[in-house]
Amino acid sequence: MTVRGDSASGVGVDKVRKTSLDKDLRKIERLEEATRAVSRNRLALGIAVLFLATAGVLASSQIGASQNAVLMVVAAVIGGYMALTIGANDVANNVGPAVGARALTMTGALVIAAIFECAGALIAGGDVVQTISKGIIDPALVGSSDVFVWVMMSALLASALWVHLATFLGAPVSTTHAIVGGVLGAGVAAVGVDVVDWFVVTSIFASWLTSPLIGGVIAAGALAFIKVNLIYQEDKIAAARRWVPVLVALMAAIFAAYLVVKGLSHIWTPGLLAVMAISVLVFALAYLGAKPWVRSQSEGMENRNQGLRKLFHLPLICSAALLSFAHGSNDVANAVGPLAAILTSAESGVLLTEVGVPFWVMLIGAVGISLGLFLFGPRIVRIVGEQITKMNPMRAFCVALSAAFTVLVASQLGLPVSTTHIVVGAVFGVGFFREYYTANSRRRRHYIRTHKRNQPVRKSFAASPDELRRRKLVRRSHFMGIVAAWAITVPSAALLSALIFFAVDWMR
């Protein structure tokens, strides 16, 4: 008995020692991970500072001995900072769903997005941009060029700081709304409320309310179509061969129109009939190409949803690239537009509604956006693609389709919308639709009952009604946090911009 007791005691001691050792090893692993994270953050910060210094040197070499040379160099650095924050926050929305769906690795997504963001900015970014984002204030009421320069400087710095803070907090926000808020706040601080075009401001707020809802509804509708016609079909392979080519062709047609209307708008502006003709032609060609491709990919494929998901990988990769190209061609203006306005006004003393953008200014914007995505973008990529709701290739496909279609329709109607709001709204739409469909779909319940005997029931299939009510497929904390960040972006950027303007005006 004593021997057994000693043996049991020894085993107990060994277990305690092993448990203590495991805990110590886990602490060391967490410490090593934290150390590596700090090292990466320091490296990223160092590279960002080096980029900003390079932007300043480049500006100095291009400006020469101008009367306001120092001011213009500082403006170039702030413009580079704004570009970094755009890349860190805004661009992540284009590739987040594809990364969350495992169609792209994080590295692959960053490379594709960086390349196509740069290409969009440099090829189709335009030689001329608006000096005032969305025309929210009237330059004629500002008065002197000096005041105008400081208005734009304050707006640029305030919007960059706000987007930086939002990125740090993990909130995907609209950089367009941030720069609008910055211009609004500094304009009111400099001149008063009469300088603001309140109709434009009202339309921007209206777009904040409508665009995420539209994006969510379209994404939910696309997912409903896929569930009914693909996922809950007896012969999934036959259904995929019938419908996936149609879906791929539809996405190709929408993206063709999207690129013509948004991505190439600075170098070509076709009419509505031309856009429709291009879309129809692309749809036909894409369908003819996708049909044999889907057939070859589905040969020998198991009659399971896992096989269907593989058919959406390639369209997702293409959509991430095209969204990045269109984003680079349009949203680079959020960084280079105010910067070009500052440079022109500081050098010539003339206030213009539109200004030319030198290549070196566009280069700062393009490289800054790509660099910001590489250095600081993965955090937002993971939040959009993984943490709001679970993504798979079919759900991510619906998000991309919804984003392109919503932006396209809004552009034709002349509505100012945010790609960020639409993409994130589409992600929420997919998640909330899944919650509703899981709890209420008769088709789903019938499909599960008829397949119970032939295959093991997944945990989600076997969940009780109480469990389904308790389990939420959309993280409410992310939903509330992101919506709150959207709601305060314009007023926060406006307040910060006004404070910066007052501080600069006091020091002058």
TrEMBL record:
One of its GO terms (molecular function) is phosphate transmembrane transporter activity. One of its GO terms (biological process) is phosphate ion transmembrane transport. It comes from Methyloceanibacter marginalis. Pfam families: PHO4. The chain crosses the membrane at residues 43-63, 69-91, 103-124, 147-171, 178-201, 213-232, 244-261, 267-290, 311-329, 357-376, 396-415, 421-439, 479-504. This is Phosphate transporter. Keywords: Membrane, Phosphate transport, Transmembrane, Transmembrane helix, Transport. It is a multi-pass membrane protein. GO terms for cellular component: membrane. Belongs to the inorganic phosphate transporter (PiT) (TC 2.A.20) family. The keyword Membrane applies. It is found in: Membrane.
